[in-house]
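Postdoc handover notes: sequence design on the structure in folder B. Input tokens:
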């Protein structure tokens, strides 16, 4: 049974090889995946379809066949087409007398061979910038006895991220989320009764995040993240003044995320994301209303798409 599975896997890799790079070995074996580095000194590094990196010494490489039909620097070039044998030379004849050419004769200029292609590298750069849009849905309680569904409705989400890679897989980043929507009932009715002319809801979160990418050298990679942030939520009673606004502020204790990024070129990509966060509001500004009734745990669930620079 194990032998049949191995044969089926080998057949699958062989049929999928037109879309991948192939490294032929001197012992007759082959490796199929994405060539990360090719160097006469350090050999060939290839990332297999399961994300594993393999390094082969230059002396063990027979030939490298890239997915676009080109060949690598290491190993021999493909054999030239066989030519027909030349007919036997005729018997030597005495040279004819020299004849002056009617035009000047110049010596042939040798053609310089083109230099070999530079080793390929698909490693991502040190920085990443992303802008995302999606939907944010509240849950839990803003304070004891007051559910979030009585303060905020679902919001249109805008997310910005700037990151620095510590390694191809691990990155630290700053995150900024902005949510825009309407106040929920009965908060919206209280806003209108108090003379509010706006009654819109805005939330913001600013914090730190640590991200781990599973296959950073591949054209697409899944990732997970963990972070924390300061947050604020505002119900605007008057667009021209913030003195009468209802404002909740606190700390987003835990933020978990996951997604999939797709690299369309070395400088641009796009992706999908989903994340959930849990936090507590520890202060409330409510002119004419009671102070904070007591801390409670609230949550936000977010999902959307994002555009990436230097993925």
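Designed sequence:
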């Amino acid at each position: 049974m194990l032998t049949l599975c191995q044969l089926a896997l080998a057949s699958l890799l062989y049929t999928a090889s037109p879309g991948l790079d192939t490294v032929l070995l001197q012992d007759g074996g082959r490796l199929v995946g994405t060539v990360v580095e090719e160097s006469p000194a350090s050999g060939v590094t290839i990332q297999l379809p399961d994300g594993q990196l393999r390094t082969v010494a230059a002396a063990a490489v027979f030939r490298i066949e890239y997915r676009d039909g080109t060949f690598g620097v290491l190993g021999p070039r493909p054999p030239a087409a066989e030519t027909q044998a030349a007919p036997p030379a005729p018997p030597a004849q005495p040279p004819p007398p020299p004849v002056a050419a009617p035009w000047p004769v110049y010596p042939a200029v040798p053609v310089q061979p083109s230099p070999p292609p530079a080793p390929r590298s698909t490693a991502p750069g040190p920085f990443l910038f992303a802008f995302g849009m999606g939907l944010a849905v509240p849950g839990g309680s803003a304070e004891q006895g007051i559910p979030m569904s009585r303060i905020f409705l679902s919001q249109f989400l805008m997310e910005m991220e700037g990151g620095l890679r510590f390694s191809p897989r691990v990155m630290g980043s700053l995150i900024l989320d902005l949510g825009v929507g309407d106040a929920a009932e009965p908060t919206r009715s209280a806003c209108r009764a108090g003379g509010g002319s706006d009654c819109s809801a805005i939330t913001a979160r600013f914090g730190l995040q640590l991200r781990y990418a599973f296959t950073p050298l591949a054209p697409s990679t899944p990732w997970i993240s963990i972070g924390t942030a300061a947050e604020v939520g505002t119900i605007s009673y008057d667009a021209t003044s913030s003195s009468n606004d209802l404002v909740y502020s606190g700390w987003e204790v835990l933020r978990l995320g996951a997604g999939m990024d797709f690299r369309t070129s070395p400088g641009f990509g796009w992706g999908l994301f989903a994340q959930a966060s849990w936090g507590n509001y520890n202060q409330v500004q409510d002119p004419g209303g009671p102070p904070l009734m007591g801390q409670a745990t609230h949550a936000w669930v977010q999902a959307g798409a994002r555009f990436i620079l230097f993925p």
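Context for whoever picks this up: The first strand starts at residue 21 and ends at 25. Don't rerun without checking with the PI first.
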